[in-house]
Structure formats: C-alpha cells, structure tokens
Amino acid sequence: MGMTDGPVLIPILGDQLAPDIAALRDADKARSVVLMMEVADETTYVRHHKAKIAFILSAMRHHADRLRALGWTVDYVKLDDTANSGSFTGEVARAVERHKPVAIHVTEAGEWRVQAMLDGWALRFGLPVTVHEDDRFLCSHGAFDTWAAARTRLRMEYFYRDMRRKTGLLMTAEGKPEGGEWNYDADNRKPPPQRDLLMPQPIRFRPDAITRDVLGIVADRFADHIGSLDHFHFAVTHEDAMRQQRRFLDEALPHFGDYQDAMLTDEPFLWHAILSPYINAGLLDPLALCRAVEARYRAGKAPLNCAEGFIRQIIGWREYVRGVYWHEGPDYARRNALGATRPLPGFYWTGETDMHCMAQAIGQTIDHAYAHHIQRLMITGNFALLAGIDPHQVHGNRPVEAACLAVM
To answer: Against a cut of 0.90, is the pTM above it?
Structure first.
C-alpha cells in the first residue's frame, strides 16, 4: 500500500459474525480494515433482554479475535469507549477520519432501519460504497419478489417446496420429496412425556473472561431492561456453537419433530435445538446445518418427520418471513387490518398473570431469553390477537420479541 493509498473499510455488523461474510470474501487482507462497532442505538431502539445484549456483544468481541487470528486488521469500538458516537453512521464517520479509506464495502443489513443508514453512506462520506448481497440466505430479495409476483396469495408451503427443489434437501433422485410427502407436520403434534429423565438439555457454556466483562457492563448499563443474566449460558464462539449443534443432532433431533409443538410446565427447552441465535448471528451456517440434519436422516439416525420438520423451519419459515419482510417494505409495520386498539397488558413484561400458559411462556423468556415458536405464536401472539391488542403496541414495544434470543 503506497503512502497516498488508503485501505478499504469493511464494517461488520453484529449479526454478520461469519469469517466468509460476503463483504470479506474477496477482500485483500493487506489493504482492508475491518470495522466492528458496539453502539448504543442498537441496544436501546427496543428494550432488548439483558442476555440478548450480552450475547451479541460477547460474540462480537470473540469474532474480532477470530478475524485477527485469520490475519485481518480489526478496528473495534467498544460500547464503553468514551468517544463512542452511539450510532453506526457516527462510528463509520470516525473510522473514515482515522483510516482515510478509498472505499467502503459492507454486507447488506438485515432490517430496513439499518439498510437505510448503509444506503446513505456514499453521499455522506463522498466514497464509493459497495453493498454486498447477504448470501447466507438461499432466496435473494429479487428472487422472492419474482416468486411473489406470480401469485395472488403468498403461501409459505409452496415457497418451501421451491426451496426444497433449489437445495435438493430431502429430495429423491427423481426430483420427488423424500417419503412421497412435502410436509410431515401432522406427525409432529405429540404430547411430551410428563417428566422424561432422559430429556436432552442444551449445553450450558461457562462464561470466559470476555463474557464476564460483558455481563458486568450489561448488568450495570442496562439494569432497567427486561430479563435476567443469572441463566446466561449461550455459546459466543463458532466452536461452541458447533458443540451445541452436535448436541442437538445427537440427542434432540431424533424426537424434535414429534414434540416440536409441545409445551410442558417448567421445561423450557424440550427437544428444541437452541441454535437460532447462532444462525442469526453468523456463528453457524444454516444450509450446512440443514445438510447435517439430512445426513442424520439418511444414516438412519433421525426419522423423516423430525428431519423434515426441522429443515422446514430453516429453509421454509426463516427464508419466507425474511422474504415477506423485504417484499412488503416499511409500510408493513404500520398496518392494522383488524383495527385493534387495546393497550399491551403489563404482564407481557413481568409474566405475572393467572393464565398459566402465558405465565410460563413469558416467565421463561424473562429467565432464559428463550421461547420456542409455539409459545410465541400460539400463546403470546394469539392472546394479543384475541384480546384485540394494538399491533403497534406489540411490535413497537416488542417485549417478547426483544426478550427472545433463541426461538427454535
């Protein structure tokens, strides 16, 4: 690099913790500076669960170390740095002053709010800005728009079938679904055994020095946020996320499908994977995980209904909900088709209610930053629907959404 040449600045966001994220994949390590930012705006735009904030910050700090070990130059801004501006754009501005880059490369954001910031950087900084597609997802925004344009109703089931065809997951050599059916959801509604001593449990990872430091910062700075840090047990590195993946494949997958819609008093985890935070943050590759699940089925180590039920959550629901979010645009959040106007009850923040299912779902969310999809959709979500709660109260305050870190 010549004396007058600047580097390429590569901001990495908190949900982009993969070493092969698109913005890094073809970059020259010798001519790049990776910028990672802990910013106050992202911790408070909704009142996130303490454990959710701690997970993201600790995972980011560990990922920075991982990138350095791989030979990247990393400029890391901590939340408690006195000069911290508190925003993504503010920190990019400071980094531009420090490093005098010739260009900015970044991977597209996961939500409208942040993407709007990225889209304004070229004008703000007078630099060429390349926004790379986030190809950790199977279906691009354009591909989903094309799929949606050909349909009068956006049925997830038909989208899911296309994703099966695209990936080849659980497909026969003749291009048919394995077992002759696309969906085995009818087999996945069994009541769980009341107290199975062999019920699998997720690994409880002991916080290391980096995580302990983060937990202290969060406890002090976000004391008034929902949730407890007492049960913090999440993996914060790729290696530990892979350990939890193996635990799920070995112990829980063989019964995941059977009980994936089940609930049991004082049993928050059942046969669920507890892998969604690692997928969403970038510590695990979703397609590689699905292929590992398929391999267990083909090796006779997991029944078809369990493998299909899990894969549908990833390449079906996860991809479909993302597609709808971007396809509908920011106006989506302002809709209120049923004209619901009641305020959100206070027990959504405390779990203090005589309704047992609600108390269980919200209570375990507060304690563990975790609730599985049935608790979120069929319990807390359906109550809000039946009670006529203003949807802007639900997704604007987002007590359960903000509190949940793991959802599957």
So the answer is: yes
Rounded CA-CA distance 70/242 in Å is: 19
**What torsion, rounded to 10 degrees, do the Cα atoms 317, 322, 328, 330 define?**
140
Range of the domain at 380: 336-403
Query: Where do the H-state alpha helices sit in 150-275?
Result: 156-167, 209-221, 238-247, 253-259
Q: In the 8-state DSSP scheme, what is residue 25?
A: H
pLDDT at 2: 45
Would the pLDDT of 400 be above 60?
no
Q: Are residues 185 and 312 in the same domain?
A: yes
User: Three-class SS of residue 131?
Assistant: strand
Beta bridge mates, 11: 35
211: domain CATH number?
Answer: 1.25.40.80
Residues 209, 326 within the same domain: yes
Our count of domains for the chain comes to: 3
Only one residue has tokens 């038909």, namely 158
Report the distance separating Cα 22 and Cα 13, nearest Å.
12
Q: Which of 377, 383, 392 is nearest to 354 (CA)?
A: 383
pLDDT in tens, 245-256: 999 999 999 988
Tell me how far apart the alpha carbons of residues 75 and 264 are, in angstroms, rounded to a whole number.
Answer: 46
Q: Which amino acid is at 51?
A: A
Note the pLDDT tens digit of each residue in 263-321. Answer: 888 888 888 889 999 999 999 999 999 999 999 999 999 999 999 999 999 999 999 99
Same domain, 40 and 56: yes
Q: Would 408 be classed as within a structural domain?
A: no
Same domain, 63 and 123: yes
Rounded to the nearest integer, the mean pLDDT of the chain is 91
